[in-house]
Design goal:
Shape: globular
Helix content: 25-40%
Strand order of the largest sheet: 5-4-6-7-11-12-3-13
Largest sheet: 8 strands, mixed
Distance between the termini: 49 Å
Number of helices: 14
Order of helices and strands: HHEEHEHHEEHHEHHEHEEEHEEHEHH
Number of strands: 13
Number of domains: 2
Strand content: 15-25%
C-alpha cells in the first residue's frame, strides 16, 4: 500500500501549529511553483499547490539524519569524543581591516571571510541577514564588500535566509553561493543537500556555509516593535543591538539607549528555539561566535577541508588575523559549556523539577554570540 503524499498541509499540522517552525525558509525556497511565502514569521501558502511533496522533504524539523548529513559533509560521522561535531582546527580571530571590525558584531570575521571568498571567486554571492529601517530582518544577497558591510551585525529576530539563496539564483543569476546562518538554517541547507526530494539547484549552489553560534532568537513583533516602543525606543533610530554579559543592549549611534537584563525579554524567545540543541552550527563548513574569545575577537571552528582552507587563505591574504585556540583551553571549554547548556535546556522543556531548570538558565545567561 502506497503512503499518501506529504504536502504543505502536513507541515502545517506537524510543524507550524506545533510552534516548531524555525522560519528557515527552506520549504519556501524549494517550492517549484513559488506558492509559499513568509507571513508573520511563518511559511504560508498563497496560491494553488502542485502536490509535489518537495516542501515537506526540505524541512529539517520533519526528518534530519545526523549520520547521513555528517557522512555527506565530512565524509564520516562524529566520534563519541566530539560533543559539538567534527572539528579540524579552532582559532580566535578578527578582521584585519579596522573598518570591517567596526561594522561587524565581534571583530567582523564573518564579513572578512565572505569578502575573501567573493574576491577569490570561491563564491559569486553571499546570502546574509539584512534588515529594513525598522529592524525587520530579511535575506540579503551581497556581491561585493560594501554590501557585506551594510548588512553586517546580528539581528536577533529570524530571517528566512534560504529564500535568499533562491533569490541569488533566480533574481541575481548567481550559481556559487555562500550562506551565513544560524544552526537551524545550516541544518535546513544540509537537509536540502541530502534530501531524496531536495531541490537540486539550491543544493548545488550552496558552496560555502558559515554557521553562527546561537542560543535563541526572538519574535520580531514582540521584541522590536512592541517591547522597544514601550521602553521609549523607536526601532527606526536604532543602529545596533547586542547581548553582552547577560543584558540586551540597543544603541543609537554610539549612545546606549537601552540596557536590560536578558530575563526581561525571555518571554519573547521563539518556541522553536527552545526545542533546538545545536549551539555551534555543527554542520557548517565554518562556525563562528564570540564565546571563548577575547572582546573584539570571534571563535572560529573550521569543520570541513574547504572551510579550513578558506580560513588559512584569508589569513594569508591579510583579510583576517588569527590566534590559536586549543580545544583544551579555557576559552574553548566555555564553548563546550554553552553547547551543553543548550542541550540541557531542550531536555528540561518537560517538567522535571525547578532546580534543573534554574541550573540550566544560569549556564546560558549570556547566550547570544552570533556575529554577522
Amino acid at each position: 500500500m502506497l503512503e499518501r503524499p506529504r504536502l504543505f498541509g502536513d507541515l502545517v499540522t506537524q510543524i507550524i501549529r506545533q510552534k516548531s517552525c524555525t522560519f528557515c525558509g527552506a520549504c519556501m525556497a524549494a517550492c517549484p511553483v513559488n506558492v509559499l511565502w513568509p507571513v508573520d514569521e511563518e511559511p504560508t501558502i498563497v496560491d494553488r499547490c502542485a502536490l509535489c511533496e518537495i516542501c515537506y522533504y526540505q524541512c529539517p524539523k520533519v526528518d534530519f539524519s545526523r549520520e547521513d548529513v555528517e557522512a555527506f559533509v565530512f565524509g564520516r560521522t562524529r566520534r563519541s569524543d566530539e560533543p559539538i561535531g567534527i572539528i579540524r582546527e579552532s582559532y580566535s580571530g578578527r578582521a584585519a581591516a579596522t573598518n570591517t571590525q567596526a561594522h561587524g558584531q565581534d571583530g567582523g570575521v564573518v564579513t572578512a571571510l565572505l569578502a575573501y571568498a567573493l574576491n577569490s571567486k570561491m563564491i559569486d554571492a553571499a546570502v546574509v541577514a539584512g534588515r529594513d529601517s525598522v529592524w525587520h530582518p530579511k535575506p540579503a544577497v551581497a556581491t561585493n564588500y560594501e554590501q557585506l558591510v551594510n548588512n553586517a551585525g546580528t539581528k536577533y529576530t529570524p530571517s528566512p535566509s534560504l529564500l535568499g539563496v533562491r533569490s541569488a539564483l533566480y533574481e541575481y543569476g548567481k550559481s556559487c553561493v555562500g550562506l551565513v546562518g544560524t544552526p537551524c538554517q545550516v541544518k535546513a541547507a544540509r537537509r536540502i543537500q541530502t534530501s531524496p526530494l531536495g531541490n537540486r539547484r539550491l543544493a548545488q549552489a550552496m558552496r560555502l556555509i558559515i554557521g553562527l553560534f546561537c542560543m535563541e532568537s526572538y519574535g520580531y513583533e514582540n521584541l522590536m516593535r512592541t517591547y522597544l516602543t514601550t521602553k521609549g525606543v523607536d526601532p527606526s533610530t536604532v543602529t545596533k543591538v547586542g547581548i553582552k554579559k547577560g543584558s540586551f543592549i540597543a544603541l543609537v549611534g554610539d549612545t546606549e539607549v537601552l540596557h536590560v537584563p536578558l530575563k526581561e525579554i525571555d518571554a519573547f524567545v521563539r518556541q522553536s528555539c527552545r526545542q533546538c540543541d545545536d549551539f555551534t552550527a555543527e554542520y557548517a563548513d565554518i562556525s563562528v561566535g564570540a564565546i571563548g574569545s577575547a572582546s573584539g575577537y570571534s571563535t572560529i571552528i573550521a569543520r570541513t577541508e574547504e572551510g579550513l582552507d578558506l580560513v588559512k587563505q584569508a589569513e594569508k591574504a591579510g583579510y583576517i588575523e588569527l590566534r590559536e585556540l586549543a580545544q583544551e583551553s579555557k576559552g574553548f571549554q566555555k564553548v563546550l559549556s554553552m553547547a551543553q547548556a543548550k542541550r540541557l535546556r531542550k531536555a528540561v522543556q518537560s517538567p522535571i523539577g525547578a532546580s534543573s531548570k534554574q541550573s540550566a538558565s544560569k549556564s546560558y545567561e549570556n547566550p547570544h554570540t552570533s556575529p554577522d
